[in-house]
Design a protein that fits this description.
The structure is a single chain. The chain has 2 domains: 148 residues, Aspartate Aminotransferase, domain 1 (Alpha-Beta Complex); 240 residues, Type I PLP-dependent aspartate aminotransferase-like (Major domain) (Aspartate Aminotransferase, domain 2). Strands 4-12-11-10-7-5-6 form a 7-stranded mixed β-sheet, with helices on both faces. Strands 1-2-3-15 form a 4-stranded mixed β-sheet. Helices cover 36% and strands 18% of the residues. The protein contains 12 helices and 17 strands. The protein is α/β, with parallel strands linked by helices and 396 residues long. Helix 4 runs parallel beside helix 9 and helix 10 runs parallel beside helix 12. Bound molecules: pyridoxal-5'-phosphate. Pyridoxal-5'-phosphate (PLP) binds next to helix 5.
Length: 396
């Protein structure tokens, strides 16, 4: 295949894309239109938790697509029941609503909290969120997000998302008023630069929410499904949230997300929530296959082993190059650099030959690593060696 600028002009331009077309993927590797291979430590932004085209997902799609695609969300289907039972069985939640994207699951969480406020808190509707948080790209989830500049691009915002500072409980307490219904956060801010909420902060939030009769909502679209070395990141803090959203890894690359709630909070009336594709058997069958692989004996131990290997390797690179260390939880990690050459490193890594490498720099002085959860020890070593070379080239 030949890359043609005039052909890609038929696509709406939403970001600056490199002049290459990916045609196939396998595990930690991607191949472009010239047959060049890339070691992928982005994995669709932490989406492909089992790597590219995992056999279990391909099989689930093949088998389910020959059986039933979508009877409509107005009827029950087998895979959605199975996946809901697996998720409630493995978490503190009792009810699941399936959605198609993380943003849509978060919209559902916001609606559910507001409905609960109408029923239980005299119409309280404000949800305290955090600076530098990311909850999606719909109008309401952009309003909930604390990304700089997002308060004005599509003004007016949806009202009712005051912003506190992560890991500063006093800043949360100061925002609570009679209209407050919930607190919502990512257990590790992903897009914000891999900034973990501390266990103490999560516990203090739970206590504060209980004192004031507020709901605690965790957006685990990026941190859920094993990414942090436990199935759900809230488990690290030993707390029980009221609502959780899942996305990304739950579908291992296909559009699937979930809104999970405890029984007492599951207060939608008929007609309040729905959607054409929600809980369709094709995607939820994939979800069942993914869940079973992530929860198989030994899987999470391997995630934690690889996490330690990656953490130590990044710390060594940081020390060698005089950088500012590494941080993260599980296989969501960041290297904090001493200079703003993130973009140059990402580009040089991608353009390396004969093989390239895909990395992500969510901030100019930061590299983020989101390999597949079944990445091998050899692949992590290879990435670390090549990253060392790339830093050398960029800083030569
Ligand atoms: C990616 C992400 C979202 C949005 O998910 P989409 O599927 O892109 O809509 C929401 N919250 C967090 C924490 C995310 O990382």
């Amino acid at each position: 295949m030949k890359f043609n600028q005039s052909d890609v002009n038929a696509l709406m331009e939403i970001t600056s894309r490199p002049e290459l077309v990916f045609v196939r993927g396998n595990g930690s590797w991607l191949e472009d239109h010239n047959g060049k291979r890339y070691l992928d430590f982005v994995q669709g932004w932490a989406v492909n938790c089992l790597g590219h085209c995992p056999a279990s997902v391909v099989k689930a799609i093949n088998e389910q697509s020959a059986k039933l695609l979508n009877p409509s969300p107005a009827f029950y289907n087998e895979p959605s029941i199975k996946l809901a039972m697996r998720l409630t069985g493995a978490s503190c939640f009792d009810r699941i609503f399936f959605a198609n994207s993380g943003a849509e699951a978060n919209e559902g969480a916001i609606k559910l909290a507001r409905k609960w406020g109408q029923l239980n808190r005299k119409g309280a509707y404000k949800i305290i969120t955090f600076d530098h948080s990311f909850h999606g790209r719909t109008i309401a989830t952009m309003s909930a997000s604390g990304k700089p500049g997002w308060d004005t691009i599509f003004a007016p915002q949806v009202d009712g998302f005051p912003k506190a500072d992560l890991n500063d409980i006093a800043s949360v307490r100061a925002l609570i008023d009679a209209q407050t219904v919930a607190i919502m956060l990512e257990p590790v801010q992903g897009e914000g630069g891999v900034i973990p909420a501390t266990a103490e902060f999560m516990q203090a939030l739970r206590k504060l929410a209980d004192e004031h009769g507020l709901l605690l909502i965790v957006d685990e679209v990026q941190t859920g499904m094993g990414r942090t070395g436990k199935l759900f990141a809230y488990e690290h803090a030993g707390i029980t949230p009221d609502i959780m959203t899942l996305g990304k890894g739950i579908g291992a690359g296909v559009p699937l997300a979930a809104l999970c709630a405890r029984e007492a909070v599951s207060c939608f009336s008929h007609g309040d929530q729905g959607g054409t594709y929600n809980g369709n058997p094709l995607m939820t069958a994939v979800g069942v296959a993914v869940f079973d692989e992530l929860t198989a004996p030994g899987f999470m131990e391997a995630v934690n082993d690889r996490s330690q290997q990656l953490s130590e390797g990044l710390a060594r690179l940081s020390a060698k190059w005089g950088m500012k260390g590494e941080r993260g939880v599980g296989l969501l990690r960041a290297l904090i650099m001493d200079r703003n050459d993130g973009a140059a490193i990402v580009e040089t890594a991608r353009n390396s030959s004969p093989e390239g490498m895909l990395l992500n720099s969510p901030r100019p002085n930061l590299l983020r690593f989101m390999p597949s959860l079944n990445v091998t020890a050899e692949e992590i070593d290879l990435m670390l060696r090549r990253l060392d070379d790339v830093i050398q080239q960029v800083r030569a």
